[in-house]
Amino acid sequence: MVQLSRRVFSAGASLASILASLPAWAQGRDSVTIGWPSDVTGWDPNQRFTPDAQGIYKMVFDQPLDQDPSLKLIPSLIKAWKLAPDGMSLDLEFRDDVKFHDGSKMTAEDFQWTFFGRVAAGQKLDIANSFRKLTGIDVISPTKAVMKFNSPAPTVPVWLAFLGSFMVPKAYMEKVGVDGFVAKPVGTGPYKLVEYQMNGRIVLERNDDYWGTKPKLKRVVIEIIKDPSARVAAIQSGQVDITVGVPVREAERLGAIAGLKGELNPIQRVILLQVRNDQGFSDQNIRLAAHHAIDKAALSKAFYGGAAVPLSLPATPGTPGDIAGFKFPYDPAMAIKLLAASGYSLAKPAKIGMACTNGQFPNDYDMARAIVAMWKKVGIEAELEVIEYAKYFELNRAGKLPETTLYSFDNATGDPEIYSGYLLNPKLPFSPWKDPVLGEKVIAQFNVADETKRIEGWREISKEAVTIGACMPLLQSVQTLVRKDGMGYTKYGNGWVMGQTMGWG
Amino acid sequence: MLAAFLRRLLAVAPILALVSLLLFGALRLLPIDPAAMSMPPTATKVEIEAARQAMGLDRPVTVQYAIWLGQTLRGDFGNSIHMRRPVAGLLAETLPATIELSLAAMVIAGLLGLGGGLGMFALRDRRGEAVAETVTTLMMSLPEFLWALLLIFVFGVLLSALPFTGRLDPGMTRPVVTQFLLLDTLLVGRVDVFFSAVRHMILPAFALGVAFAPPIMRVLRASLIDTYQEDYIRQARLRGVGETRILLGHALQNAILPTLTLMGVQFGFLFGGSLLVEVIYSYPGMGNLMVDAVRNADLPIIQAVGLTYCVVVLAITAGVDGLVMLLNPRLRGT
What we know:
The complex is a heterodimer of chains A (505) and B (334).
Chain A: H1 2-21, E1 31-36, H2 54-60, E2 65-67, E3 73-75, E4 78-83, E5 89-94, H3 108-120, H4 127-130, E6 134-141, E7 144-149, H5 156-159, H6 170-183, E8 191-197, E9 201-206, E10 219-224, H7 228-236, E11 242-244, H8 248-255, E12 260-275, H9 284-292, H10 296-304, H11 332-341, E13 350-356, H12 364-378, E14 380-386, H13 392-397, E15 404-410, H14 416-424, H15 436-445, H16 451-467, E16 471-484, E17 487-488, E18 503-504
Parallel strand pairs in A: 1-10, 1-11, 13-14, 13-15
Antiparallel strand pairs in A: 2-3, 4-5, 5-7, 6-7, 8-9, 9-10, 11-16, 12-15, 12-16, 17-18
Helix pairs in contact in A: 9-11, 14-15, 14-16, 15-16
Chain B: H1 2-29, H2 34-37, H3 45-54, H4 61-73, H5 87-122, H6 128-141, H7 144-158, H8 181-187, H9 191-209, H10 213-227, H11 231-238, H12 243-272, H13 274-280, H14 286-295, H15 299-327
Helix pairs in contact in B: 1-15, 5-9, 5-10, 5-12, 6-10, 7-9, 7-13, 8-9, 10-12, 12-15, 13-14, 14-15
């Protein structure tokens, strides 16, 4: 009897220890586990443009300027800034209470190093391309500096809050070198990096000396989960507290489960058809017919649960480049009429090629197939080919893209130059539209310093581009997000999901 | 025997040279411009051309191959185009995780395969044989990624019994000594972290290994049936040796040799099959690195990972050949 009791006790104890060691997924109230779809490209934040990693970088590094949730430009490390009337220089005043994670004080010297000194030292950085017009940075004092340009640079303040623009410490980087910095990065951000395993996870701990608002959560764990099905399973099983980029239907299904909330949030990413001005699209009638034949509301309903706003311009609603009241209508009858004027019909369809990605953004391939079907109904026959997103630029540079490409363009700033200016600039690889008439207007607009004229100019260019069929805006993209019911976060218009804005209860 | 083993090792060199040539040639045939891929989208044509010259891509392909081969032989795999980091470092970070996963999967495949093979042998000419055949066919017919998703659904979501993302529980810190996590946790004396790592490996290792078990079962079963036709088995029976002892003490020793050879070959496939499983389970190994490299057309990584797969497969094949020679006296003189 005594023996049996011991066995029972022993078995019970073993079972209890196993059970206790089993589901350790849900962290405490002082931490959060985020299921994120992609990794950073490395821990030198100036080195590569990685739009999806910008929110991650913003937890460890600060940007000179920041954006509020409605994307308005706000002070950050820079307290005040003033662009010269001719747009040729930018006066900056920095905070004097900011410390890097290694305890050193941030000064204007660090700014000079980050945005000019590193490139001058021969380091290969993507931000060198953002600040091409920069000829130098004069450090006036530890808290004051002046950026100087070789031509008007009105969007530099916007770029100081955009891709790759993160402050790094000069002294530390010179001491440990770039490789040492990448191995142990030091920023001024609200969290410090304590553990990183490539394609695995990122562990951050609160920077208790942070100059700004202290984050509520002490620890942030980012699990890199690239497979959408695995992200769905991870949030449903409670292994992560919040995740993004799940299929739209799954976001809706998970949102109906008790304890979870599903969201479809419109963000500053536009889905559009990029267009060539030659080959099968050399005829404006065919281009406009193709645009009129697309039922954008139906695409939104079918692929984004109706949450993606149909667009008529390459700018999202509410951003400076948007024109209230401007609509490019869905009008299949007009499409048929335009095609007929150029000698095409259902019996004799216009033939074009179309490229799209598969899996680059939610439902991209299915959406392209739906568009091909819509075109077929009016007399346009499109042959669809799938390309890798990374190859878009290369194919475009080589002039090998087909007549049109389904494309997704991210612009966290919402600035019209970064929408229309980049999407339509014939010298940049985003635009397959190479016609010099529109192209010259676009290039000239980059040098307009007056803010009112600058915004108005981009609006006019966007309108003209749509009117002549140089681009076909389709939808404002949505970010799918699923979170545990008690997990709160600040929603940004550009889809940033950051630990410093999160909290339980 | 040593001479035979060395001969086999020598045969590896031309195979590696051929694989390197094929890898380099095939990747150069693809319509990918590594110079353009190395630059930000806002780069101009002039900047890309400068990058092309700096990378030596304007030189003849044969010269490019010679340079690459020379560097590779010195252990320099170049820099990742996408991440701008040395590829050798990336391999050193990720290869140990893939080796651990593959070994764990092989253990599972081996245990299931050997156990199942013995079970199927015991069921021969009985009713259960057809059922066992059907089960093994089903196990083989599901690809790894489907097993991966199925196991996540059952054990991760429905039962909430096992974790399926990453390698450790969120609250735990990963010790780094050798980059082999299981070994490192033991080296630093963190048994709790060791068990967390083991729990995280169960599902991916099972997903990777389960489909490799049925061939082992079938080969072992067939091999045992052949072995049972041998005279020494009949003589053992006549001497009154028990059936269990005949099976485990006599027949299995010989029957396991072709099974071992098969497992060696399978390990190569299993190593290569880790790509999708690693992505689905967010497992930070070389397969995950390779999938990203393919997506970003990161040629230096693709070349280095391809070569690494080749070296690992050849090394394992040579190792298994050596083991078989050691176990089979008839092969020692060859």
